[in-house]
Amino acid sequence: MSGKGFEGRSVIVTGAASGIGRAAALMFAKEGAKVLVADLNKDGAEETAKAIEAAGSTAVAVAGDLSDPQVVDEVVATVIRTFGSLDVLVNNAGITDSMSALADVEDAEWERVIRINLTAPFLLTRAALPHMLEAGHGTIVFTASEAGFRGSASGTAYTASKHGVVGLVKSLAVMYRGQGIRTNAIAPGGTQTNNLTNSLEPAKITALVNTMLGEAQPDGGPAPHGPTVMRDFLRTNPGRRSTPEEQAAAIVFLASDAAEMINGAVLPVDDGWSAV
């Protein structure tokens, strides 16, 4: 897109302190939108908002854990109070897992991944919908994943969470299409972000990276089962890693009037990986 396709519209982008979310927030602003930047990382969220304002657009930052209902209420109240409406919601915030197979998934990892990747966007969407329904229009875009299509792209917790996101998208599209609400998702393949370092403990990152590279574990123990299985599947991925901007462009398109008849779609942005 180019020009001011979102002039006068207000947009919430979660996970906008970095990566895909930051790129999407900047892109919406360039298209004329007023943007609420939401992220757990307060400094990063404020940096994104400042970058938007420095470019001549309007932004406000809200920091907090989006799986906390109080933070969710603050985000929605702030966008309505500051901008007067809510036209677009981008549920992008998420974390990865340690690629663990089910028998090795710890309770804490399962609960954290599901809470952030699935429960948080559910809560925010539920809070946003009344405002969109009252206005008679609204667009919601989720960041799903290649792991929402298949079982060979990540670990158990992440795969389950992204399959859940796909279910949310399809349910929302069916339930609210007659009330002016469109819901879609992008499904990124490999993308150049810092999601791994933001999500895992340093020891788990080291173990995961060593396994994926086929190198010995630092403690001399066996490589974890899940990453060992995933390694061969992920090495056969024929596509290149995308930039955050390429993913953001797909988000902005799905939120735009150009995608007016697209509803309930999960768009692979993966250089053809999902076609293999």
Rg estimate, integer Å: 18 Å
Question: Quick one: biggest sheet?
Answer: 7 strands, parallel
Report the portion of residues in β strands: 5-15%
For the termini, the CA-CA separation is: 29 Å
Q: How much helix, percentage-wise, in residues? A: 40-55%
Mean pLDDT: 90
**What is the assembly state of the chains in this entry?**
single chain
Q: Strand pairing plus helix content: what structural class?
A: alpha/beta
The CATH topology is given as Rossmann fold
CATH architecture: 3-Layer(aba) Sandwich
Give a written overview of the molecule:
This protein is an alpha/beta fold and 276 residues long. The protein has a single domain, classed as Rossmann fold (3-Layer(aba) Sandwich). 47% of the residues lie in helices and 14% in strands. It is built from nine helices and seven strands. Strand 1, helix 1 (19-30) and strand 2 (34-39) form a beta-alpha-beta unit. Helix 1 (19-30) packs parallel to helix 2 (42-54), helix 3 runs parallel beside helix 4 (107-135) and helix 4 runs parallel beside helix 5. It is globular, with a radius of gyration of 18 Å.
Please name the defining characteristics of this protein.
276 residues; alpha/beta; 7-stranded parallel beta sheet; 47% helix
In short:
By secondary structure, the chain is an alpha/beta fold. Helix content is 47%, strand content 14%.
Question: Helices, strands, pairings?
Answer:
Blueprint: E1 10-14, H1 19-30, E2 34-39, H2 42-54, E3 58-63, H3 69-83, E4 88-91, H4 107-135, E5 138-143, H5 156-176, E6 181-188, H6 195-199, H7 202-213, H8 225-235, H9 244-255, E7 266-269
Parallel strand pairs: 1-2, 1-4, 2-3, 4-5, 5-6, 6-7
Helix pairs in contact: 1-2, 1-9, 3-4, 4-5, 7-8
